[in-house]
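Write out the 3D structure for:
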Amino acid sequence: MAARGFLQIAPGRRLTLNGVEWTIEDVHGQFGRIVLTDDDGRTETRSFRWLINHADLRLLPTAKASGRPSPVSRQPRTLADLTKDQLERAQLRAAHVLEAETGFREGHPARALPGEPRPAYDPDRTTLTQRRYAKAAEMEALPRPEAVRLGLQHLSYRTLVRLSGLAGGSLLLACADGRWTRRRSGHRSITEEVREAIFAVKAECGERARVSLAARHRLMHQYMSERFPTFPTEKIPSRWTFADVWKEWFGSGGARPRYGRTAEAAAEAGVSGRMVVHRPGQVLVLDSTPMPVKLRETVFGDAVTATLTLALDLYTHGLPAFRLTLQSDTSVDVAMLLRDVMLPLPMRDNWGEDMEWPYAGVPAEVIAEFTGHRVAALPFFAPETVTTDHGGPYKNHDLVEAEREIGCRILPARVLRQTDKFAVERQFLTVQTMLFEHLLGFTGGDVADRGADPERDASLTLAQAEHVIATWIVQIWQNRKLGEYAPSWAPGEDHSPNTLFAAAMEQGGFDLDFPEPSFYYKVLRKHHVKIHPRRGVKILGLWYHQPVLDEPRFQQPSARGGKYAHQWVVRSDRRDRRQVFLQDDADHETWHILRWRGLPPEGEIPAFSDKTAGALLAHVKANNIRIHSESELLEHLLGILGSVTPVDQWPSQAKKKAGKKQRIAQAREITRAKAAAADRPATPDPVGETGPSEMPAAWAEHARTIDEAVDADRRWRREEALAGTRPVAPPTLHEALNRRPMFRLPPPDGSDADTTAQEGDT
């Protein structure tokens, strides 16, 4: 192609102009023109100036006359390909060439070294040919080891002539030994059979556990011996050649097998590249972690660990919603968290005007008119994409159905890839350093960093901790200056999550679209059941009924078609199993609350979740207890709920961990029932229906409530058994003695005489 930095043009050379291949047919040097011919026979005459200044000119390599295949293409070598020692040796060789050409080792009189020019290389007294012959004689007179070390043992007159005209980097590369940067010719021992064996081992190791390189090499030997029995064993590559080829083809293999499988699955599914987030709500990241602060549950007063679930907007890095749950969260809690993201946060007590909705474009009065209350300065929006990990609550089909109901896409993170949701992982540590470390009951980041007794220091309840976190988010986090997460389109400007949201709102507008009140029911678990006359519906082993089910329209099969034809859809909240919800078929905005048939008509029993209901049914089945009515289950349920109230399990008397676990489990159910009641939309209670009563705040009050519920249930069962009978007063003592005199002898054996004393006997 081009040599010495010049464009060589000769008849027969092929080149491309704007992607079209041409052949130089003739060169008219005296006129400065060339004749070009393409593959279709078209001929054009162009000038040298036009060809040299063409924007898309490429010279094609010439074909070898011997017919051998062209060598492997490679990028041109540069001085950066040389090591420090190799570069110094090339510079010494170039210095000798420059001295023969100019008389100075630096190539110019202005950069003459002390003692230059030497008499044999003085340009004023010698010719170029004389200097070249002198340099060749000097190199021949050098000691052999020194000449070999510098690579000057073959520096002859013809070599100096060949290197003439080069300067700078071109001369250094010409003086560098070609063996230092020679073209890689591959591995000749890698034949087609060996290549097939290597790829077969690669596919097999992808599904197996991690194995060593030696094991892979032995698997290759096994494959070659079974598939190619005639292949010479001595021609199979060695272990070291196999290692080099494996690294060249598949990389170093540092990734763990599980990561490699997930990456391959993502590549097969077409998931690649990086998502660019450029508006609020485009990507919402959810994650949960144990809260590093011990809290006090309000039922028994024990120190417990709560779970903090955060929702992070990737564009603004704001926290539009969060949830605190005892022990662990569920799919219903996460679904309610998504609903909180779309709802404006009401102003709370002791919140000043600086925490009220401040954004320009949508005044606070407009938002308050839609919501019916003052709104805090916390963004709310409908998420477009939700990214979660692979935890149980996030993979639950109920949550997936809730996300579809919202209309957002689900983009789960790759397994064990924290980088897919690194932002929310980082925020947990930030919240810890900015807030949790200052609260009593802080447990530290590690067991070794824990205080002497964090459970003793715990003072905040779940409601108080929720209020503190909400205040901190609205007042501090949303107005905190962003550092590395600042937008790239505003260099040098200070932005916070609130200002980023305001800027995006001014650019793209704001959609006041709130979820409807019935959204709570739509994200609950669905059950397709039939309505039984006088019994109601059976949901997960428990019967539920309401007088509305006795109407004729509910006695008929449902008008629904499809997979669950003729069945009614009933929703249940796993946090509170005392009632389920049925959507009215005539008015879709009306939801009927169906109470459990085991509830007493008066008063209220403590809340119980699906876990307790499962334990109740398992207890009945294990003890082979025959239940004739749902009310008979109540006594066993109260026994399970009251198992934490004996004296030996009081907080002051308990010495075993099991007792505390039972108390925490009971407190968790009560707390979850309160959360479920808070999430339900406010609806008036039907006539004759008793609403849930307020749960007690202490364990003693809780025990009294259970005793009263048991007494009420027994009283109701006695009254039901004696319904329709008239009470008769017992006889007096005188009447009883007259009926059976104490001194009358009994009749003899076998006598048919009536032993019953008649009235009037003496």
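Residues 657-679 form the longest helix (23 residues).
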